[in-house]
Predict the structure.
Amino acid sequence: MPCPFDTKPRWERRKDARPQELLEAAIDLFVERGYAATRLEDVARRAGVSKGTLYLYYENKEELFKAVVRSNIVPVIGEAEASVAEFDGHSADLLRHLIHSWWQRLGATKASGIIKLVMAEAGNFPELARFYQEEVINRGTKAMATMLERGIARGEFRPIDVVTTTQVLFAPMLTLVIWKHSVGPCPPAELAPQAFLDTFLDMALHGLLPAAPGAEAA
């Protein structure tokens, strides 16, 4: 039943929804076909509008792709930044929160296909690579590094090379995305992402060596 307080005519309500409909169609096609093979006319057709209508909202494919990233990925980076700034517990718990939130908000969603797309096609589209580096990678890397620096300053992590450790922490997360969308040590249908991430966190926080006698794990 239509909302009794929604007084806009149906055509105007549809017009208001079009940018989101176009973004949903775009992310589906970018993930299915990749950036190079996705055509604007196909995005418009998937969204149920004309190509001319699409151009009213997005000037070209590059701007459409940037809008997809800003709609689906950049807000998650902002949430991570806020978590690092506001978290009040042990830094090990903060790391667990960041990793699991990343999977829930990105890895387990269609947006993970955009991450894989960027890794696969960035070399052919340097402007998009620069955009993604600035708005996603640099901010995400800084958030993770700040989390590590926080742990060291509070005596919750031992002194480490923060830059290299940040890279090491991101590598398994990105590998999991690649396996999800292509091939890996097991078929995508048999992947157990939560078990993978829990094992990764256990190794990151405790290592493979047994704890020294009397030592407590974080």
In short: The first helix runs from residue 10 to 33. The two ends are 53 Å apart (CA to CA).
